Amino acid sequence: MNGDGAVGRLPVVAIVGAPNVGKSTFVNRVLGRRQAVVADEPGTTRDRSYNRAEWAGQEFLLVDTGGMEPRARTGLQALVTLQAHVAVEEADVILHLADARLGVTEADAAIARELRRGTEEGNKKVVLAVNKLDNPADDSGRYPFYSLGEGEPHAMSAAHGLGTGDLLDVIVSLLPKGERAEEATLPTVAVIGRPNVGKSTLLNRLLGMERAVVSEVAGTTTDAVAHKIEVEDSHEGASSGRFLLLDTAGVNKSTRRAEGVPFYSTLKTEGVIRRSDVSLLLVDAVEGLVAEDLRMARRVEEAGRACGVLINKRDLVPPERLREIEDTLLARMTDLKPPVLCISALTGAGTRKAMPLAARLYAAYNLRVPTHEIAEFVNALVDRNAPPKGVKIRFATQTGSAPPRFALFATRPKDVAEGYLRYVENALRERYGLYGVSVRLRLRSSR
């Protein structure tokens, strides 16, 4: 899902099932538009897709997944199944979809067993639905599915919309309430980085207690672990209060082979980035900035989130090395322009500034500026540096936040060069302190 912001604040409903049982058709039915690709051949959906949905006044994230084949161990189908496993771990409610025309299959039984194991370990709810029951007068095709041991099988037809409303009523009734719902509203900060860069050590330092396993073996952390943390920051414009702090699994270059625990950890880290408002990217001062660091920064930007960079292990390198890394960061991360902090998670040097930095990033991420102020500011920019001849920018406004989104209304918008938009974006970033924050700028016709 692209950056509409605040993804982590919504409860998550994951749809799982064997290939070609109608998961994407159900997603399209709920969303009321053709969002997912639907085809007769199995395996059309491969990656997870995140969609903001609403039913009976309750908003939630609906996650479409590829078909699960629990016995798959290698190849594409194994990777698709891993994607579905990640969606299940992220979910508050899991919708297990089966096909009435096929009856209870071995894949259905295997999926049910895996879901039972997963729900026994966490506070998750599973809803079983039997799809492709197109005759509303006869739902007897659902009865064999009681054998899966997942409670009542709900009869439905995603293609025709039969029973989908009743099914959504059940799903919404199971979404988190009370304390868990309150936690879901907290701003979320993720600590991301390559294996063994010091993420768990930093987490322990920030929390003041041993809550994460610290090991010299790369890749110790394979799950994201959330902890509440209080932040106090007197810096002007900063957000104080409670945050959820996430430690994540490491990401390294072996994930390009897309296999085993490294690939699984990468999927989970990317999911955490999407669910978080702010990511703190930990860079190793000894090894310097590497391609994997830049890739993670791009993931944050693509997700429309905020990013700060923490250069760790400053106690192991001379000041000249730190300045060299900072210069490289400024040269390579020209889109985000993230703020940089040099720390030592091991000794604690500089770590007290990490969460206040995240709080300031969160405040910038949620920036709201009055329309008249944006319009006057952009008018002044245009007076100093006019757009191409024949183009007039008539109006500017902010269209959203988390991340900040702006629109320019112009004559002949197609004639405005990318460089001019970058000029306006950089000016907005400097004026409102949007360093490390994805800024979305769109041109619209003034007609």
What structural keywords apply?
six-stranded mixed beta sheet, Rossmann fold, disordered N terminus, single chain, alpha/beta, 447 residues, GMP Synthetase, Chain A, domain 3, 15 strands
Along the chain, the helix and strand elements come as EHEEHEHEEHHEHEEHEHEHEHHEEHE
Low-confidence parts, pLDDT < 50 over ≥5 residues? 1-8, 34-47, 215-223, 252-261
Highest CATH level, the class of the largest domain: Alpha Beta
Largest sheet: 6 strands, mixed
CATH architecture of the largest domain: 3-Layer(aba) Sandwich
The total domain count is 3
The CATH topology assignment of the largest domain is Rossmann fold
What is the number of E strands? 15
- For the residues shown, what is the average pLDDT? 81
Shape category? globular
CATH homologous superfamily label of the largest domain: P-loop containing nucleotide triphosphate hydrolases
The strand line-up of the biggest sheet is 2-3-1-4-5-6
The secondary structure category is alpha/beta
- Approximately how much helix is present in the residues? 25-40%
- Gyration radius, to the nearest Å? 24 Å
End-to-end separation: 30 Å
Structure in words:
The chain folds into three domains: 7-180, P-loop containing nucleotide triphosphate hydrolases (Rossmann fold, 3-Layer(aba) Sandwich); 186-365, P-loop containing nucleotide triphosphate hydrolases (Rossmann fold), CATH 3.40.50.300; 371-445, GMP Synthetase, Chain A, domain 3, CATH 3.30.300. Helices cover 33% and strands 21% of the residues. It contains twelve helices and 15 strands. The protein has helices at residues 23-31, 75-90, 106-121, 164-173, 179-184, 199-207, 260-275, 291-302, 319-332, 354-365, 371-384, 418-432, and strands spanning 12-17, 49-55, 58-64, 93-99, 125-131, 153-155, 188-193, 225-231, 241-247, 278-284, 306-312, 340-342, 393-400, 405-410, 440-445. β11, α9 (319-332) and β12 (340-342) form a beta-alpha-beta unit. α2 (75-90) runs parallel beside α7. The chain is globular and about 70 Å long. Mean pLDDT is 81; it is low at 1-8, 34-47, 215-223 and 252-261.
